[in-house]
Structure to design on (167 residues):
């Protein structure tokens, strides 16, 4: 990633995190906020469980439906897939890789104070078969979720490897 792209990602991440909180601290209606946060956390967890099932089922259209209409997948070493159709095409291509396997898990979920966005940070494990042999990768991801019409949708999905860059 060149330095200007990295700067944009860092600025956007900082802006998003500035509007997020782990738990409501305000007095007053805190019980309702905590209940809502728990419900939202559970809903995003269920969406992630569905995502993992769709990966196992090789259902790119189902995965694309998890994204907002203008959602974006930002894979490493490739162009951004913007919009559900492009996201579905990207997932179709990725899952055509022989012996494709992917799993992931959340390390941290941060909900915005407004309750309409969330930051999901976690890990992934990828396996596949390339012309050069087996591929096993581990890495990290960030998914930005937006609540649209009462449903959590992926607004942005970016991930990258923990492995050193290939020479």
């Amino acid at each position: 990633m060149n330095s200007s792209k990295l700067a944009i990602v860092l600025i956007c991440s900082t802006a998003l995190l500035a509007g997020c909180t782990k738990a409501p601290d305000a007095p007053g209606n805190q019980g309702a906020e905590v209940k809502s946060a728990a419900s939202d956390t559970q809903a995003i967890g269920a969406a992630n469980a569905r995502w993992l099932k769709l990966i196992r089922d090789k259902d790119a259209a189902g995965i694309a439906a998890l994204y907002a209409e203008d959602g974006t997948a930002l894979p490493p070493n490739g162009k951004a897939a913007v919009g559900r159709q492009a996201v579905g095409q990207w997932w179709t291509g990725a899952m055509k890789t022989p012996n494709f396997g992917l799993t992931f898990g959340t390390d941290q979920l941060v909900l915005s104070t407004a309750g309409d966005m969330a930051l999901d940070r976690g890990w992934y494990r990828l396996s596949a078969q390339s012309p050069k042999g087996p591929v096993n990768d581990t890495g990290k991801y960030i998914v930005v979720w937006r609540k649209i019409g009462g449903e959590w949708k992926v607004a942005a999905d970016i991930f990258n490897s923990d492995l050193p860059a290939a020479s």
Observations:
- The mean pLDDT is 85.
- The beta strands are 20-21, 67-74, 81-82, 101-112, 117-130, 133-148, 151-161.
- The helical segments are 3-18, 30-56, 60-65, 84-95.
